[in-house]
Amino acid sequence: MAATYDRAREDVSNIVHLEHVNVTQPDQRLATLFYVSGLGFTRDPFLMVGLDNMWINIGRSQMHLPTNRPQKIRGTIGLVVPDLTLLKQRLERVAAALEGTDFAFADGGTFVDVTCPWGNRFRCHAPVAEFGDTELAMPYVEFDVPAGSAGGIALFYADIIGATTEVVSREGAQTASVSAGRDQHLFFRETAQPLPAYDGHHVQIYIADFSGPYRRLLERNLITLDADAHEWRFRNIVDPRNNQALFTVEHEVRSLKHPLYGRPLVNRNPAQTNRPYARGQDAFRGIY
Predict the structure, then answer these.
(1) pLDDT at 1
(2) What does the alpha-carbon distance between residue 284 and residue 19 come to, in Å, rounded to a whole number?
(3) DSSP 3-state assignment of 11?
(4) By CB neighbour count within 10 A (0-12 exposed, 13-18 middle, 19+ buried), where does 216 fall?
(5) Among 185, 190, 193, 226, which residue's Cβ finds the most Cβ atoms within 10 Å?
(6) What's the pLDDT tens digit per position in 122-139?
């Protein structure tokens, strides 16, 4: 008997990859302690290797960390790490050096909540089917958004960006779920709590239909930067029914012809040490 397949499971959104989150921070030394020594990720060895910026590789995605006043995502960045027990051990080792900052972590059982030295929140998950077959990844960014905005945000990404969207309940709150790549999502979760002012942080996405969303955003006066042939940016997410602004976060939007698209990222094995050293185990051998 011939096998049957759900072909719709292989459909993709116009957003094909959530590549990086960019937050400025004031101290590259503390950033190294947190992201490399604590979380166990890898500083990109080829690009941004000076003192004014640092790119941190997380599977196929990155954190970009230029030196400047601290910026804070209004929400939570989701991560998949290969081993939560080893993660907690690393975080315990850097805790003393990060004392006096906003650094903290808490064991949630199936996840570990971690706060960076400047207040950015991360939720670290073990590899599970919910995030596909990856063992090292940035599967989502969840933004806190005003009550009543999730429906309009979902329409914006569907009608203007061409993404696959739905409105779901996430931890009891209405949430716009936007497909942002292979097993990646942007979540916009409603909250009644007041939100801090937007401080300039951004997310970067690759999209397949590059000109259609650009044209629709340009018609609404929403393009904020024409960077080059391969990139443009926008900040305001609006309800397409009335153009009312719902949430602000800069999107760095790149085409699939961008020179950095699909660039292989180096990921190390954070369990490797010089004593005892295991020959041939320097690189991360899991799936990402």
Answers:
(1) 56
(2) 19
(3) coil
(4) middle
(5) 185
(6) 999 999 999 999 999 999
